[in-house]
Design brief:
18 helices; 452 residues; seven-stranded mixed beta sheet; alpha/beta; 17 strands
Amino acid sequence: MRSFLASMTDSLGSDQATADAVVFSNPVSLPSVFPVAEFAAAAVATAGVAVADFRYAAFGAPARVAVDRRLAALWFGFSLQPIDWVLPAPWDPIAGDYTTADGWIRLHTNAPHHRVAALSVLGVPADKPAVAAAVARWQAQDLETAIVGNQGCAAAMRTLCEWQAHPQGMSVNRERLIDVRATEDFAGPLNLSTAERPLSGIRVLDLTRVLAGPVATRFLAGLGADVLRIDPPTWDEPPVVPDVTLGKRCARLDLASAAGRATFLQLLQQADVLVHGYRPGALDRLGLDARLRRETRPGLVDISLDAYGWTGPWQQRRGFDSLVQMSVGIADAGMRTLGRDRPTPMPVQALDHATGYLLAAAAVRGLIERLKTGRGFEARTSLARVAQLLASAPVTAVAGNIGAAAEADWCDSTEATDFGMARRLRSPLVIGSTLLQWDRPASRLGSAAPTW
């Protein structure tokens, strides 16, 4: 856990004394062949260290960082418990792992257009037995290539060694865990409030979707930031929205339209932080390249992520946590080590969640740069690069002892979400006397106007 924390904080240039002083309590394990619970605690601690450094830089208020390892691991699952209502099913019926003629492949079909892409390659209707029969006739990597080439999402299962030897694996492993740099544009002072709510007054424009980016901006909202999430007109992600829109206002804009871009640029003019999860070049194609963003908002803290890395032959590839686990060898390592007969990923989407906390930490590091020098800041990472850090740990079978969330893990008060009353997990992190706490309940996408 300490080695994970050192790698994460070193990549951000965090204060080493603050990182060394982090207090971890309440140890648990998750059932995995990788140290997922330790990874979770380290990622949460990394975000906490960044906030402690910011508190000191902004307010002269030193603070010790404390992480409850049990709560950190639980937050890597689902932070919300509905009261008298039911969350939507997490997966589309067609999504899942399928045997091929030579191995395994995972189809990710939660988005309707991704389902259409996969089914059109297979030439079958949306019927799981028909899909399984069609997949079985393909070589795994041939089918992966065909579906990805048809603008869909799929990942053949590879071993850890195969990924290390793959051109994309080699390229990603040469990237920094978090690539950070100060820019040469300048802005005026930040609008700050108090050390207890250190990000109150900070405006965050959120252009992210499932799941790492929303985790990052949820964290920033928990420290007082004004987070405005922007989604396309028809986008939805029902299984995770109640979990990740906590503390945010959620609006819609069509960035492919002139009117949508104009509104977005007006919002950007008043933003301090932009977090986006578009693949390399995607914002450029929408007419919102990095140069325009900086001209629009000098001093911007510009934070970005993608799935498979920013270099290499797969840098444009669509991806999600479950697909990256298949590609990089995590699912195969679980299957082999535990003697299972099918891919065995981690019990939580740890790549998404860990990346989210690292992105949040990077955003806070950028605010420190802005505070000290007035300069803007850029940072980026990927699920695949974060996976490389986790996969560098020894592989050992762990039964896991965490169990389900207990009564003491939930906040005393209830949350009036747009979906119904719910309970939320307690904060896994304390920075001095600062806890994560949110000013708004979870809301539906498109429920707010695109305005500050």
